[in-house]
Amino acid sequence: MSPATRAVLSLGSNLGDRRATLQGAVDLLSAGEGVTPVTVSPVYETAPVGGPDQGAFLNAVLVVDATVGPKDLLELARSAERAFERVREVRWGPRTLDVDVIAFGDVTDDDPELTLPHPRAHLRAFVLRPWLDTDPGAVLPGRAPVATLLAGVEEADTEGEQELTVREDLRLRLPGEAGRVG
Ligand SMILES: Nc1ncnc2c1ncn2[C@@H]1O[C@H](COP(=O)(O)OP(=O)(O)OP(=O)(O)O)[C@@H](O)[C@H]1O
Ligand SMILES: Nc1nc2c(c(=O)[nH]1)N=C(CO)CN2
Fold this sequence. Notes:
This protein has 182 residues and is α+β, with helices and mostly antiparallel strands.
């Protein structure tokens, strides 16, 4: 069997039943061929960054071990988006589900179809904060420790545009984990 590569996926939703969509995405991605789920982060409520006026997002990070390649993982991410009928209309506009590949092992690649790490991950508290929760020692390949990047984003965010709120009441679970209490 080929060795597994640890990969980080970011999940976002700001339309419909946002938590149900994120949980559905975790379930679909975890069932993907060559994918073993490792950890899911807490869920954060986040103000939209960029794009038109739109509702708040729920964001989380799913960490997986992949025995498939990065493009297979992107295709799996796209198929999860299609399952939730994501329609691309406006850049950075509202969406039922967005799944981005944030990092794939320590791979760096500037291929526009799949840039690794994700070209805007280092600027986004809604990616860095939940990722840091899953792994306090996480490093964004080719850049810096996630903790350092998050501190920089927070310091630069003088208007509080990237503030986020943890939603302990909306925890996600990995398949096979015990359900929520209450
Ligand atoms: N690391 C990556 N993860 C996901 N998509 C990527 C990545 N690198 C490049 N892409 C490409 O980016 C294109 C646009 O992706 P998408 O529609 O999800 O963008 P978005 O979520 O609206 O904005 P953003 O890219 O800023 O998160 C896709 O066609 C995809 O091939
Ligand atoms: N808060 C928040 N803002 C965004 C998000 C997102 O997931 N959360 N996704 C975007 C494009 O991927 C653009 N802006």
